[in-house]
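input
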Amino acid sequence: MESKRQVTVEPSPVPGEAYSPLPRDGAGLNGHRPQVMDAERFHDASERILGSINKVIDGKADAAKLALTVLLAQGHLLLEDVPGVGKTLLAKTLARTVDCTVSRIQFTPDLLPSDVTGVSIYNQSSRQFEFRPGAVFANIVIGDEINRASAKTQSALLECMEEHQVTVDGHSYQLGLPFMVVATQNPIEMEGTYPLPEAQRDRFMARISMGYPDKEAEIEMLETHQASSPLIKVTPVVTASDVAAMIATVQQVYVSSAIKEYTVAIGRATRDSARLRLGASPRSLLQLLRAAKATAALDGRDFVLPDDVVDVAESVLAHRIILDRKAASSGDTPQSILRGIFASLPVAQEPPGAWRRDRHSV
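output
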């Protein structure tokens, strides 16, 4: 019987060559610290990326912006919705807008962890084991229908998503920058699927539910997408070095102490809520703040406002918290509980200009 396992890597490693990655200092592209972009260049690059995505994904500007936000915040994205609403199309479009390495993994029950991470192969001529990189060795990794793979294969992504490295046979291999996993899953069809464990879901910075397009966007799609795939016309609009510089720019965005306190208050409120069985983890609060910084940068600011935190909080926190049975049976959702928390938490009042104060001390 023919195997359905499919792993595609673009570009693929050169046949016969062992993989020996250069050491990376964690601060830049290929060991070099990228230069911070000025506001005009950052705005121009982000507009090119969003414009390219919006030409393909009709009526989903918010989803496109959130996907870019996750990329610039050095996070990973989970696209979760019913079939046929453009989850994989959004992932592929984002990948093609950046001139960098891209890999795609079709997750199936027979996919092996070594297909994801790589494997050591014995070279008879050199009498040594050589590492052959798996599909995860790319700047953007698209994992299609991630919940169709076994828990053992899903766990192969845990280390690379958190630490940006892969360990095989006792040797660790650094991944490049930028690095982003964009995974899709179908929450409706449960037959033959393996639900993502909480440890795996917690490593995704944000979850997007695409939803159905509105009437006008759907008519536009029927008019423009029936002859050929819109992906054919998508070309890179920025380089990997540009994205690394944009990431460095986001890292320089200032966060006041009041914003940090507000973020922690949100997390503690989820843990204290009687309607939640599992609240937000410390990792989720760190990722929430990173996403808020990227949001501020995309809006043309070098400092974070409380609205930036609230804007991304549902996408960052909703897939991490678990409802109590009583709350679930009464019709509550993670989103509704989070909105109640936002409404009840006071935002510290800062004097004019305090959001920008002491930027250089952070």
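quick obs: The longest helix spans residues 39-56.
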